[in-house]
Design a protein that fits this description.
This protein is of the alpha+beta class. The chain has nine helices and 13 strands. The protein is globular and about 60 Å long. The structure holds (3R)-3-hydroxy-3-methyl-5-(phosphonooxy)pentanoic acid.
């Protein structure tokens, strides 16, 4: 696949390559693969990129093995990110003893399950495109980023992004695309509730859920309906429909995990308290909804007009303006 996308491009190696990619949070989740190796999803998904929060990567050729650092600290070879990044870089070495120095900077807490692997692999793909002067189109880059981490294919774009599940076995029709909608008043609030290491990675959790959860069978059709509802909500700028659907979609994903055997439960008491508080705020007339990924942290969705009320209730929340206003 990599060879097909890169074609007969000469591998002109520049002195360095660099790129930035935003983190993204799914409003309709990617949950379940139809191909483990190619990271092909069972369903399409829809996300919102987090503006300036994400990963910046500088890449340069080096000798004697890959050297990978994060926020100025050299990572050990047995670090999970190093192993995944090295396996990804293996796909692109012009000769087997070509090595990379990778300097990554994350403006989003790395250990917190706030989608840093998505921005990391997207930035790495863009930096490779720069280093090797591939001049590939975004769609092809999206397919390549997907090989690092599924959700990374969505981090190549700003704003709202749809990842088409595709049907082809080779995955050439499984790529992300930006949606035309913008929404300057939309806010996302990040609640960092636990920095403890996750009990199980999203990759493993996805696999275990598909294999063992009696509720997974209901997921693909529901995700399809949620995606359609979200796209309509975006077209009509209907915030209540957007928030309600994103929240229900996240809870449905967690329901499939909770029913897996053994159960996968990412929630901490603080996660549940935040969800309850969001519900209480809604009962009091503040339009705030939440979403959660494969981790304990909660992300809130609200509009600028409710920002003061939400910030009052969640004083430690980090506010993101996805459309930069
Ligand atoms: O891209 P991965 O393998 O880290 O999976 C991401 C899965 C979720 O974050 C839970 C959902 C999503 O669509 O981002």
């Amino acid at each position: 696949m990599v060879r097909r996308l890169l074609g007969r491009r000469p591998s002109a190696v520049g002195r360095a390559g660099s790129a930035f990619a935003p983190a993204n949070i799914a409003l309709c989740k990617y949950w379940g693969k139809r191909d483990e190796e190619l990271h092909l999803p069972i369903t399409s998904s829809l996300s919102l990129s987090l503006g300036r929060l994400g990963s910046e990567i500088r890449l340069a050729p080096c000798t004697q093995g890959d050297r990978i650092s994060l926020n100025g600290r050299r990572l050990a070879p047995d670090d999970v990110f190093v192993q995944r990044a090295t396996a990804f870089l293996d796909l692109f070495r012009p000769v087997p003893d070509f090595f990379f120095e990778v300097r990554a900077k994350n403006s989003i807490p790395t250990a917190a399950g706030l989608a840093s692997s998505a921005s990391g692999f997207a930035a790495l793909t863009l930096a490779l495109n720069d280093l090797f002067r591939w001049k590939l189109a975004r769609r092809a880059l999206s397919i390549l980023a997907r090989l690092g981490s599924g959700s990374a294919c969505r981090s190549l774009y700003r704003g709202f992004v749809e990842w088409h599940a595709g049907q082809a076995r080779d995955g050439m029709d499984s790529y992300a695309e930006p949606l035309a909608a913008t929404w300057p008043d939309l806010r996302m609030g990040l609640l960092l509730l636990s920095e403890k290491e996750k009990p199980i990675s999203s990759r493993q959790a996805m696999q275990q859920t598909c294999r063992t959860s009696p509720l997974y069978g209901a997921w693909p059709a529901q995700a399809g309906r949620d995606l359609a509802t979200l796209k309509t909500a975006l077209r009509h700028r209907d915030f209540v429909a957007l928030g309600r659907t994103a929240e229900a979609n996240a809870l449905a994903m967690h329901a499939t995990m909770i029913a897996a055997r053994p159960a996968i439960l990412y929630w901490w008491p603080a996660s549940l308290a935040a969800m309850r508080q969001a519900h209480q705020l809604r009962a009091d007339g503040v339009q705030v909804y939440f979403t959660m990924d494969a981790g304990p942290n909660v992300k809130l969705l609200f509009l600028r007009r409710d920002q003061a009320a939400v910030a009052d209730a969640f004083p430690r929340m980090k506010i993101v303006r996805p459309f930069g206003r």
